[in-house]
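Hi R.,

Here are the chain sequences for the assembly we discussed:
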Amino acid sequence: MALKEGDIVTIWIDSKRVFLLKITKGKKLETDKGYILHDDLIGKEYGDLVKMSRGSAYLLKPFLEDIYLDLKRPSQVLYPKDVAYMIYSSGIKPGDKVVEAGTGSGFLTISLAYFLGKEGKVVTYDIRKDMQETAKYNAYILNLTDRIEFKNKDIKNGIDESDVDAVFLDMPCPWEVVSKAYEALKPSGALIVFVPTVNQVEKSYLEMEKYNFIEIHAEELLLREYKVKEGATRPKNIGVVHTGFIIRGRKSIKPL
Amino acid sequence: MALKEGDIVTIWIDSKRVFLLKITKGKKLETDKGYILHDDLIGKEYGDLVKMSRGSAYLLKPFLEDIYLDLKRPSQVLYPKDVAYMIYSSGIKPGDKVVEAGTGSGFLTISLAYFLGKEGKVVTYDIRKDMQETAKYNAYILNLTDRIEFKNKDIKNGIDESDVDAVFLDMPCPWEVVSKAYEALKPSGALIVFVPTVNQVEKSYLEMEKYNFIEIHAEELLLREYKVKEGATRPKNIGVVHTGFIIRGRKSIKPL
Amino acid sequence: MALKEGDIVTIWIDSKRVFLLKITKGKKLETDKGYILHDDLIGKEYGDLVKMSRGSAYLLKPFLEDIYLDLKRPSQVLYPKDVAYMIYSSGIKPGDKVVEAGTGSGFLTISLAYFLGKEGKVVTYDIRKDMQETAKYNAYILNLTDRIEFKNKDIKNGIDESDVDAVFLDMPCPWEVVSKAYEALKPSGALIVFVPTVNQVEKSYLEMEKYNFIEIHAEELLLREYKVKEGATRPKNIGVVHTGFIIRGRKSIKPL
Amino acid sequence: MALKEGDIVTIWIDSKRVFLLKITKGKKLETDKGYILHDDLIGKEYGDLVKMSRGSAYLLKPFLEDIYLDLKRPSQVLYPKDVAYMIYSSGIKPGDKVVEAGTGSGFLTISLAYFLGKEGKVVTYDIRKDMQETAKYNAYILNLTDRIEFKNKDIKNGIDESDVDAVFLDMPCPWEVVSKAYEALKPSGALIVFVPTVNQVEKSYLEMEKYNFIEIHAEELLLREYKVKEGATRPKNIGVVHTGFIIRGRKSIKPL
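And here is the predicted structure of the full complex:
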């Protein structure tokens, strides 16, 4: 399948140089390892190796992971391991409708839109308009704009939507939104909270218990990367040892 | 939305008693905490609390996690944390087509079918027919049968499909299938391998390097659960400390 | 060096059957794998394999680890990994004098006495006399009685000793003892606290900051065991994932 | 106890500026935060805060940890958590005699000498003379020279000592020395091996099994540091995720 204008592609030079772009005639991608003209990508295929002004690069079909690697990041971003588990354990599936706050750099927003498919819907709240500009740009690059509704509002003032399949909170005081999430959710729908400190875990968890959420879990995922070499395989020495905690539960409609 | 015959529902008594069923008139679910008649579920809603012969249970909309909790397990099963990350990092999305081996108890099979949506397709290979019976039953319960093709074949003898979006291997010697996965994959498609020992990590990784896979990673996810209590929050004391390693890479079509 | 009455020996049948004893004529060790008469140990050597009434056992020179494995445990016991790090990072050496509370089963008490040598001194406080009986018995078995002073007192009411090299606290509210530990310590001496919850970490750490401790660290050690088999080496599947947190700092005598 | 010439002291400016020195009249310690004259330390006490040319520093009694922080490091150094556990689980105590290879920067050497006390003995082998110069300097600074014998020899050619309490190996192919360690050890004495890769774990462990070592363990310690702040306590984000594996066992004198 030959690439054409408007297609999205990941330019992979090496593990540390990954660039995501939408092919636009006349544009040029500049990197510290040389440049490439968008025009030269037309007619190529995913998987191809292409020449750059110096050296070469692979063309790949964009994965969510690439978005992460290339993301313009005005704020701290969620990690793929956490986003993967948050989505998986939320019970959502293609076609569902979800609410999220805050938008941040849009990495969770975009991941949700990606997995919810063409008929899915993500409504994302953030009080900072500049944040949402970045997220909007990333959504545009990935042709996911139609599935996302951006709201420049404070979710603490209320959730406009009702009967949603899941609510995702990645914000400073998520416990202040638990009652509102409860109201917005379909019965049995999941509330998924991400926080960096243990004190926030405690507050969020206890508030969810108060509001008839059941099957509540507070969990943390640690990712360990390995350096593989024949006869000398071992975990990498330095890495990320903490990102945050995930608290999740499901709405029940009658008290236990 | 009132439940009716043929609907699927999770019966949640407590965190250790989770049962998944398809409502069938005349049937009865027996547990060590009492029984419930399927007929009594008709007309109820997800989120409701219902009476059992003793005590009560919540009705929930089935999540993949519930499948895991209730799964009939003739073999060791993948964990949700691993399945979540394998799916996420494979780059697949609703409508894609994937190949998997072995079927095992079908937990990955079903998770893939769930996320790929109505237009998605999972082809799953296993040499053991009895394994697939369990997986078929689980797929039936969840109304996912249409999206899955079961093949009682040894994937080492070849992959019938071509142009697939991703290949998932959870089997003893995955390195023997790397070249076949390469051929079956679309350019830029992902191969995702799950193995329990470090020796298998080394062999799989090196074979993937040999076959022009790029952006190869060998990773391990550790999940830590927390016990939350006001003023006394801490990680749980005993738990699973090892499930397995995930090796993943993407097919390039020209040598670097 | 032939074993004689009064010597201590570890009877090692397998990793799960480890018994520590002081050779006493006429006594018998009974296990679910047969018995052995103390008299039969006399004249044997460490490292020897001896017959039991059924099967056989190795005689080993007792290690602190064996004490742990065989310890009579009326309370939850510290783990070797934590005790090792607590002792190491406390800066103590043979001949030093330390204070500890609570005694508990005496595992830390005994470990301290072991490393402090013949001229070292451990003063251990506990409000429960019955606890100390167990610890005393263990100290007797190991010939360490002379190095330990047991006090059946509440350390919250004050520390009788002064100019001690280190203070170790493994008790519910260690922050209530921080000021007293500060007074009892030599300048530059270490306070080492062990607690199971994150809330206790926060309180202990902040109280130590208030009392002019410097180089304060809050740390946690995770131990992972591996199952080694040729070509199939991997971490063990199930294990202890949390024991507790270690907070440590050193007394400075002037405010920063 | 007033400090005098020849005493050792840790100059603690902050957690990242820790300097260990032996007070020598006329000398000066230069740092990027100002300098201090050794003469100005005389008459001060451990715990004191002293003026530097700019700012100030605490004087502390040197701990092994400080040695680590200030160590001149020509090679990769063992970490305190690993050294602590290696020493603890080796069963050694004040007065014992141990063999070690290779010397490296001498951090384990010095730690052993510290815990073995005045009557203890460490014999350390290394093929690189320059390595040992660094270790000798560090031993001199800490007044531990008398307890350590440096041998500029390849331990693979044999261990001169016999009847030693423990052998410690931190070198590329420890399995080649297992049989020699077995001979040098007292019955029941421990062999403790440190290696960075899983392949080395497998080889070392299997060789120890072959040579009648019992109670063999292959373990890994992970240290997690916490950032404590009132109401916002969490693990640190970035850190060391892998140092190495510890394999340990005890010599039995008859085959099982």
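Helices of chain A lie at 64-70, 80-89, 107-116, 129-141, 178-184, 198-210. Chain A touches chain C at residues 198-199, 202 (CB under 8 Å).

Let me know if anything looks off.

Best,
T.
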